[in-house]
Amino acid sequence: MAKPYLIIGGGAAAVQAAKAIRDRDDEAEIIILGEENHLPYNRIKLTKGLFTDLHSEKVLIKKEKWYLANRITVITSACAVSLRPELRQIETEDGRTWEYRKLLLCMGARNRALPVPGAELRGVHTIRDMKDADALKSSLASGSRVAVVGGGVQGLETAWALYEAGYTVTVVEAAPRLMGRQLDRHSSELLRSHLERSGVAVRLQAGVTSIEGIGSAQGITLDDGSRISCDHVVYSIGIQPNTTLVKDTAIQVRTGIVVNDRLETSIPGIYAAGDVAELDGHVEGLWGGALEHGRTAGNNMAAEDSEVYSKAVPVTLFNAFGVSLFSIGTVDEGQCDLTLSGEVNGVYTAIYVKGNTIVGAVSWDSAAASLIYKEAIERKIGLEGISPDGTDIVTVMNEVKSRLRGTAPGA
Ligand SMILES: Cc1cc2nc3c(=O)[nH]c(=O)nc-3n(C[C@H](O)[C@H](O)[C@H](O)COP(=O)(O)OP(=O)(O)OC[C@H]3O[C@@H](n4cnc5c(N)ncnc54)[C@H](O)[C@@H]3O)c2cc1C
């Protein structure tokens, strides 16, 4: 009997890959081995919906009946501990051996540890999986003071959830601004004042040097010597791909498992996708990227022809502290020729131009409003004849909209 397609890690990339394989191969056996004790779930909800019922079926990527209908076997609480490529075998912690015809590595990432004395104290948390979220929620007490370390999207969403649930929150960020990877300087500053007006304290350019407490956290010390009293610390300072499984193999690893643009590793027949994978020197670490990685890898595993992964324009939607905003594409002034900002639809908006096309946008507008910017960036709508330098942003965007309509399929 033909060996199964084996997928390690039960997350977004794994589900998408299993679906792609099944779409191309109706007969094959498909097995997902996941170390968590749950069917694959929407990890984003751990912060966006921290105080909702995270164990509800609604959080699952696919319900159990979908796996049954598609004959995809998900084995939970199955941690892969050893890979023997020469035998095409995986071993799980319980001593079982799993053979495969093709293997997909989707072990995701863990949160980067906070490298300071006191990080091992009770009351110090990070949120990567369901257990982490449960542990944080069950340890909070009425009136708890929480220091959230990391002013990126995940940190701020956590801060918002805690603030809404009635806890006293301080956000501590080492960089000079909040959401520095997604926002321009002005938006970061506006966001900081929103947080502060809501009653959340913000400390910028503040590196944590230690966490103090006897048995459990009682405060953190910052690099300027000041101290913040708190009962809990929740940190969110980046990710580290889970590559331990391949460490004794010939599979190439840098930060993540190195893959080519077909998502294949340095060993033919073994693929990697999602947060564990490094493509062109870059670990994406985003939900949309994990889905698309998974789909592409699954297609390539099951098909004779090959599909090249094409990175989607990254989109961040932020809804917290009474603020809706989005950030799309490249919003790094250093990588662009020109930035144009002003009010569009009555809200602050900035667009980033490079080589006469819009490559990025930040706007304090809703998700629905983001679509036009996303489309303009994806379709590389040119700004020839507009001369954006010296033209106001509303005029530029009106022209972009009309060019989009003019180039719409069928137009
Ligand atoms: C709290 C939180 C909020 C986020 N918010 C956003 C957001 O707003 N927008 C966005 O784009 N992205 C967000 N992300 C990132 C996004 O969730 C990830 O990019 C995405 O989940 C990656 O999917 P994946 O399948 O690669 O890995 P994961 O979802 O991490 O799944 C990997 C799975 O593999 C398991 N595993 C690891 N090692 C083994 C092993 N040896 N054997 C078996 N199983 C193993 C892990 O336990 C895990 O269940 C967020 C992440 C977190 C944690």
From TrEMBL:
Residues annotated as domain NADH-rubredoxin oxidoreductase C-terminal: 314-381
Domain FAD/NAD(P)-binding: 5-281
GO MF annotations, alphabetized: oxidoreductase activity
Origin superkingdom: Bacteria
Keyword Cell membrane: no
Keyword presence, Flavoprotein: yes
Pfam family, one: Rubredoxin_C
InterPro entries assigned to the protein according to its UniProt record, in alphabetical order: FAD-bd_OxRdtase, FAD/NAD-bd_sf, FAD/NAD-binding_dom, FAD/NAD-linked_Rdtase_dimer_sf, Rubredoxin_C
Cofactor: FAD
Keywords: FAD, Flavoprotein
Protein name per UniProt: FAD-dependent oxidoreductase
Organism: Paenibacillus sophorae
